Amino acid sequence: VWQSNTGGRGVSSAVLEDTGNLVLKNSSVSIWSTFENPTDTILSSQNFTTDNVLQSGLYSLALLGSGNLTLRWNDSIVYWNWGSNEFANTNLTSPSLGLQPIGILSIFDVRLSGAVIIAYSSDYAEGNDVFRFLKLDSDGNLRIYSSARNSVTSTVRWAAVGDQCQVFGYCGNMGICTYNDSSPICGCPSQNFDPIDPRDSRKGCKRKVGLENCPGNATMLQLDNANFLTYPPELASQVFFVGVSACRLNCLVGGSCVASTSFSDGTGLCYLKERGFVSGYHSAALPSTSFLKVCGPVLPNPSLSPSSPGAPPTLDTAKKKWMWPIIAVGAFFIILLSCSCFFKRRKLRMKGKTKATQKNTTTSTKYSKANNHKKDKKMSHELHLFSFESIAAATNNFAATNKLGEGGFGPVYKGKLLDGQEIAIKRLSRSSGQGLVEFKNEILLIAKLQHTNLVRLLGSCIHEEEKVLVYEYMPNKSLDFFLFDPSKKGLLKWRDRFNIIEGIAQGLLYLHKYSRLTVIHRDLKASNILLDEKMNPKISDFGMARIFGLNESEANTNRVVGTYGYMSPEYAMKGIVSMKTDVFSFGVLLLEIVSGKKNNRCYHSEHPLNLIGYAWELWKEGKSFELTDPTLEDSCTRSEILRCIHVGLLCVQDLAMDRPSMLDVVSMLANESLQLHAPKQPAFFIETGAPEAETVEKLENCSINKLSISVMEAR
Fold first, then answer.
1. N- to C-terminal Cα distance for the chain?
2. Count of CB atoms within 10 A of residue 594's CB?
3. What is the pLDDT of residues 297-318, one digit of tens each?
4. CATH 2.90.10.10: which residues of the chain?
5. Architecture of 479-670 per CATH?
6. Phi, psi at residue 259, to the nearest 5°?
7. CATH number for the domain running over 373-472
8. What global pTM score does this model have?
9. Which end of the chain has fewer CB atoms < 10 Å from its terminal CB, N or C?
């Protein structure tokens, strides 16, 4: 809806031009036009300048004189800001924003040598009869749409804010945004609140009892994995560096504070929200705890899923009914187990069964084969300390027929325990360079890494000068065994490959964010991805891994280890290690999985480009799908293939700061509704066939349970 306010100006005609511009004229003179006075939409060939503003409810889009493009809520909160890096050293004269007909959103200025691209639509350069437009929607997101000519439907091809819950005010004041599958939904923080409009959950929530009704007696409602969005200008005055308890207490005693958020991502940040508008976001992946001031008592948090379309979330009373019976039964079994343990320990003490020899992990006592299994012991974290005789029996005395391969730290064997369990055994050679203390410390360290997408260490054996590691056995060997073999790659259908991609991403996210230690793998590649009987991926070979301290985000190392082709440029050339080092390697691996090609090969007839360079050239030409492995022709989903290539190119961008985090990657892969930004030029080397740098594993032909362990560098 619009109005021209041209009354009394002699408007005598209206003309709708082929471009979509509606022009009001006085004779032949243009008095007013929709292109010069946009509402919420920009058409292709329409220029948007610093004099224009797109408006949709409380949301607005503006182009600043600096060239920055901003999305604002209520003309105050800036929740999206594009361009600060592009124009840092440039004074623009008269910048303008335009959407090209082929689907490229760009900023132009006479001082720029060319257009600065903001985004490509996901269908850019496709189709000759496609109508595209840019719109600021009522949910506060800026999107590119495309539609076939004469069609009444349109499709989203790009969104400025990839995560809709990050749009300030999306769920109204005191509302909490979360996701139901791939769709954002809104709800109230707890039963201390009521929806403002039961028919529209986006209008926010209100306290049942106002804070003015309990002066001095307020308490704090705790919301785990929640964040109260804080953007400029609030960032200037509401950010502090304190722990979670202080973050809660400071808000509780602060007269103007109504809510706070404490981050557990190592930054120590605490946001204190003052009286006014509070916009919440809840997700299991958020490393933050939020607190909301309420009049007590604190009531339970409802589940954040709607009971009906458009309705606010309600508490699942069925769960509440079962709560007390479950607690009672659980308490009974805990008491029963405690009594059992007490009497068992008492009986053992009376019989003198406690043996000091259990502390001696280096005993060289000779065991008979009949008693080998009984004499294996358990270490901490469910690791077993195997006797050397049981290891020898499991491998048929390390028979050559059981040998799976040879690595820099020694041979790997397949074995079978007396209970029938198949295992992979790495026998460290005497020249491996590891001493007893380092070996034992590393075992305890690896034991702390427990995830379904990491290969599992079952135990170890220390006997005189022998040091052995025991892992779960992977019957389908490693990813490279299938991926790069023309006769076997057809066995990896697209669904298998996509599951492998998601599994690797989940494993890396655990290492980077959710494990007890922050671990950078540094040697992620196809040969280090093992596959179980169901083709589930397991990240292996932590021999080059680097541990980061709590507040450490990157480090320099004088020892660059890894495999060329998978190493990020800042690591290969400067020795800079960070989580983005693994993100780069993941991007390379993702492109290899989609294409079935190795990165360190030449794939261009005119230029010696590796796989990354080849993928980039295809992307620029709008031919990304041509990268797809031909064996996937009958099993692939085109949209998933293109999305994976897009994510892969985002991961291999030249600058580490431009690459997404693994949390972002997991979200991109799982949520097709998230619109992806256009990738910048990747880091790729012209030279092909580069040698490996200090790779500690070179098993014969391909890696089979290729498991390598060495001392991790810690700071």
1. 61
2. 28
3. 888 775 543 333 333 343 333 3
4. 38-159
5. Orthogonal Bundle (1.10)
6. -160, 160
7. 3.30.200.20
8. 0.47
9. N
